[in-house]
Amino acid sequence: MDRLFGWFRNKKPPGGEPILGENVPKHVAIIMDGNGRWARSHGMPRIAGHRAGMKNVKTITMAANDLGVKALTLYAFSTENWKRPQEEVDFLMKLPQEFFPLEIDELKANNVRIRMMGEREGLPEHTLRAVDAAIEDTKHNTGLILNFALNYGSRRELLLGMRRFAEEVKSGERDPDDLTEATFGGYLQSEGLPELDLLIRTSGEVRISNFMLWQLAYTELWFTDVYWPEFSEEHFYEAIRSYQGRARRYGKL
Ligand code: FPP
Question: Where, in this chain's numbering, is Mg(2+) bound (predicted)?
Fold first, then answer.
């Protein structure tokens, strides 16, 4: 809270009303799109865009943490991204071992806890080692949960969850009626995270791309043309302000 009030005193977001300390979204997810186009527009190879995108992860994580957001889920690698050229896939798979050693001290100092969702199977050992070390290193932290979606696809997540439930029914541990809107989330990889309040997608694409399909039922959506490496704190505040200005009715009047 101290940090939040400090932020209030010192750092009014430019171009609009200050962000209110209340009605901050608990859980924000971001589809970090546009790294490749950003790189190309600067005459650089695509991988330079991914590295710039990686650097931006820290900036937006700190901004979210300072605001009091409880969980930030970042779409870092989808189940479809394996179809990219091998060189690019290899580069993306090495990003965790570049990112965490560089940023873990500051993340820890800010009480950030690392988490991952997605299928471990298929991810290289070195990627998992870097992510697991960061998860272990931050497991007692109580601030923002920084949740990386890696080798994640929502249809796959739903199928795996339902298969697990079916196995539990088969073994007599559960009855089909045990599956309700309340219990369903417990079979998903986002289990235990707050309801998803706000989804941001950068780079001008307006689609969901197999991301958190169940969790998005009542989520507010924010699309921007800005490429991820250029998505700044100010852009983030703009999305938050928009969220705060919306009336969420959940189907009621
Ligand atoms: C989509 O942009 C972006 C990705 C597939 C990778 C996103 C990953 C990061 C930003 C870094 C994650 C950091 C860690 C530590 C795991 P694109 O390549 O599809 O861009 P384009 O649509 O312009 O080609």
Answer: 33, 220
Tokens of 223: 């699309």
* Mean pLDDT computed over every residue of the chain: 93
Coil/strand/helix, residue 73? strand
Amino acid at 234: E
**Residue 224, annotated as binding a ligand:** no
111: annotated active-site residue: no
List, chain by chain if needed, residues with CB within 6 Å of any ligand 1 atom. Answer: 32-37, 50, 53-54, 57, 76, 81, 92, 95-96, 99, 148, 203, 228
Tell me: the pLDDT tens digits for 14-39? 555 657 678 999 999 999 999 999 99
What's the gap in Å between 44 CA and the centre of ligand 1?
15
CATH hierarchy code of domain 27-153+196-244: 3.40.1180.10
Sequence spans of domains, the chain: 27-153+196-244
Task: Give this prediction's pTM.
Answer: 0.93
Please give the Cα distance from 84 to 230 (Å, whole number): 23
| Sign of the torsion angle spanned by Cα atoms 75, 222, 196, 12 | positive
